Amino acid sequence: MSELAQNRDSAGSLRLAPPVGLDTTMLCAPSPADPPALGETAAHRGRRARVFAHRGAAGLFPEHTRAAYRRAIEEGADGLEIDLHLTSDGEPVCFHDATVDRTSNGTGSVAELNLAHMRTLDVTSWKTPKLPGDYGAAHEQLMTFADVLELMIDAGRDLELAVELKHPSPFGDLLETKVLRTLLRFGWDPETSVIPAGESGQHAVTVSFMSFYPGSLLYLADMVAPDKLCALVSSVTEAQVQKRLERMPLAMAVRPVVAAVMRGTLRDSEALIWNGRVGIAGPGLAYVKEHRAEVKAWVARGSRLRVWTVDDPQDAGLLIDIGVQEITTNYPARLLQAVTPSD
């Protein structure tokens, strides 16, 4: 059994101090007056689940681009789901993979490229050679974390932002620190996890944090309420182990160790959910189907369920029957229709 699972009653000892180098005086800024309660906006009323756009409307446009995010907001998604890595010069950028090879015309690790170089990459042609003109020029498609916040603040309605912190990172917890610094610069209130939006603050961007790596969530726990922390969980398969080994020397020799570490990380993430250290459980769709009893127990214990990646309306119906409250999808419009009862 993992250390987290063994020490359920003493989990508080795992809490960390506020991130090193973060100006904690910024945390004393006044909270926005009467921030909107989650689920109370007109857009949410009547829906059986909230819909998050997975890397934007990634089924239609290249993932993590301005076009994908704008399309998701236009389609009425309740929120965006994004992945963050740090560039070599410390800028949080929206990229899923640790390397740029799959979704750009470049090559190499995000961590080894600076932001100026990444701005020169073509991040759209691999999927959509020509984007609609009103979704921004080609050189505007790579998105930093700050770019996303600006886009959401200017959206003219309440939105939620699910931030996945990608680990392992060569920068360690500097990733979390940089993300928090950016949020504070935009007026984020740690107590409510809300950024006021609109000309008079009548709207809000509500931020939650996700990771497959329990250490990331524990690092944030002294600044972020449990109901804004999401432990991502996925069954450890042979294919996942093989993918992790792709860039490792002596892959066959270390395979048993890597598999054991991955399974231990999964157990630690599950323990965070069972122990209430995080308020949101983030299983993949396959995990839900394989562990239906556990997922139902999490719902019964008061956890919010945010399930990824759900593109089939029939799967959405199954999840709603279980009690899942939030769904992440590549096709926001399709899933919004599935979770909205017809008159």
UniProtKB/TrEMBL annotation:
Q: Which SUPFAM superfamilies match?
A: PLC-like phosphodiesterases (SSF51695)
One GO process term, biological-process aspect: lipid metabolic process
* PROSITE patterns named among the record's database cross-references: GP_PDE, PIPLC_X_DOMAIN
A Pfam cross-reference name: GDPD
Q: What residues does the GP-PDE domain cover? A: 49-339
Q: Which GO terms describe its molecular function?
A: phosphoric diester hydrolase activity
Source organism superkingdom: Bacteria
InterPro entries hit by this protein:
GP_PDE_dom, PLC-like_Pdiesterase_TIM-brl
Put simply, this protein is called Glycerophosphoryl diester phosphodiesterase
